[in-house]
Amino acid sequence: MEAQPAEAIHASSLVSILSASNFVIGMGAFVVVGLLTPISTSFGMSTSGAGWVMTVYAIAYAISSPLLVAGTGRIGRRRVMAAGLGLFAVACLMSAVAPNPTVLLAARVLAAAGAGLFTPIAAATAAALSPPDRRARSLAAVFFGLTLAQVVGVPVGSYIAYTFGWRLAFGIVAALAVPCIWLIWTRVPAGLKFQPVSLSDLRSILGNGPVLLAVLFTTSFLGSVYVIYTYMAPLLEETMGFGRNGIALALVVFGCGAVIGNLLGGVLADRVGPVCTLIGLAGLQIVIMPVFSLLPLAPIGLVGLIMVWSVFGWSFMAGQQVRLIAMEPQSAGVVLALNAAAIYVGAALGSSLGGAVLDRFGLAALGIAGGAVAALALAHILISTRLNS
Asked: Which CATH number is associated with domain 201-389?
């Protein structure tokens, strides 16, 4: 079925479809956080070994997304988004039937490639088809699906994994992607193209040391969060005695905090400026994360800790994006694409470091390690600000 003409497309309806598709992407990407224990048990792996399922995805996304987006610039956006979401669905199905860890890791690489194609192009499509006075809100709505996946998708996936097995969780993600693919194909205008991000544009930014250092603050800040977040399920199992319901609740609380943080971050950046916001958030993480090394706490105290940690952990994005656009207004698209890749680099490095700390010092050391990385993030933003002043 051919897509309707662009002028017949209702922008808010299309944004809702793109947001729903990003929800599926986010659920498939981050549901692994709640599946580490079932996966490790199924394959006889260590918890840190199972953590590579998240790490490999993050690395693959960071490497493939800018290259794939640049390499498909001459192809209609509808085709690219449908292909990306289709590849993601196939990879999730492949994960669901993986007979061994090698196949599971290969499937996660393919899933990252599909997600890396879909999400950046979905944002560009929403911006292009929305009126100028609603463009920022449309972009926020598209990315809301990713945030909502942490509130609903990840805890639900964790509950399903502990009740019916982790394979069904991946299978459900694949099934949810199918109607989204159909909606993308029938609602996005055919032949829609934009000025592609070229490899030369990417090389130019990568060669600009001060700007690249500023982009990589996303990596250092989120890396500190993922030292703990990747291993939250086994941490709460061991220290708090949580099972399926407790872990699902903790992930819901974290997701709610992420939603609040996304909203709060914009307010903070507008009122006190992006740099002050980022410095303050890094300082707060230095104080908050070592508390996870003091578990167990009373359940209500743990809920409060997770909520505060998540709110301030996810308040950085608005300030960071405003800061990067101000530095390179003529290359904003390229810089923001690299910033998106830096998110997954941070997730990969944080997950890897958390696994190494877990193997050597145990789960109780994760909070201290996360706080130490947050201290590096604080140093990073201070040095970066000085170099760019």
From this structure: 1.20.1250.20
